[in-house]
Design brief:
4 helices; 4 strands; 44% helix; globular; binds zinc ion
Length: 143
Amino acid sequence: MVEPLPTPSSAFASERMRATPSRDTRFELAVRRLVHAAGLRYRIDRVVLPGTRRRADLVFPRDRLAVFLDGCYWHGCPTCELTPKTNAEWWKRKFTRNRERDVDTDTRLTEIDWEVVRIWEHVGPAAAAQIVIDAVTVRRRAL
Ligand SMILES: [Zn+2]
């Protein structure tokens, strides 16, 4: 567990938190729309690891393929480095924990023969959708 967030001491940090939803982001919605338009059907926001609350953003159950669309902010993207300046240490710990959990999720899914596709928000919806479509296509050929 990470200790509670210190009182927001800057308008910027709390503004950023409000402006950065953790799910159903415009990025996620755009990717879902494009993948759907390509004729692929999937489940949304499904728990993929039994006994946990860990959810994948797009799930292809028959293909055993889980897609995670990782927001650069919440998942602590090392490329974008969006860590708030205020309470930076606290945020770094939180984002590090999120990343560790992501890696653990990937490992555990791989162990039960799922394919994991994890895509950073900064690649953009069109490129992300293509990655998903390609991954499903390859997976279906392989299975
Ligand atoms: Zn990023």
